User: Fold this.
Amino acid sequence: MLLEVANLTICYDKAMLINDLSMHVDTGELVSLVGPNGAGKSTLLRAITGLVAWEREITRRSAGGDVTLDGTVTFDGERIDQVPAHDIVKRGLIHCPERRRPFRELTVRDNLRAGAYLVKDKNEARENLTQVYDLFPILETRSRQISGTLSGGEQQMLAIGRALMSEPKLLCIDEPSTGLAPISRAEVFEKIGQISDSGITLLLVEQEVSTVFKMASRNYVLSSGKIIAEGTGDQLLQDEVIRKTYLGL
Assistant:
């Protein structure tokens, strides 16, 4: 078991966004988190990668409300729910955020090099860059282009490539198909499949259920901060209530 989340509860002021949630990801799996908008999927990813704890410290220093986080997150045999986000990255747990968020004023190459800031060996960093270019040839073609001028699909590939530069043990990808045209969406999913086939463990938040269910080893369905179902794509699609109520199918 590479990642284990146990009895996690997250509240922003009086609003409970995650409610006593438990889940796990085994080494080598591609696991998906699906569910309606507002279910808590992105909040869960931010909690796993230390960003909710960071937000808690920010809000405590401001005049705003408070963020409370209870439960445990264990990664690669060690608890990380009290570990700063930058140290979580050092352990190989990498978050590829929703809406891509490149450094828009930098070139594609400089964005990718920024992703390798923890890789101290220059030869290793160059090898990582070569591997990213092999996976995403368009990024090599666009290497000197300013990232803010890329198409949506190219920016998503750049975001994933930048995350891969950090040599993840577990890569969490949040809503990679958001705002993409069908052709770009299909290409991004194809690349995610190739990443999984290479042996990298993946935790994927996604709305495109029909595609994700064909790729994932297991799936968790979230609703109102709770996991209401778990299983393979075939198992979940056989449940008419899950299909209509939570998956919109």
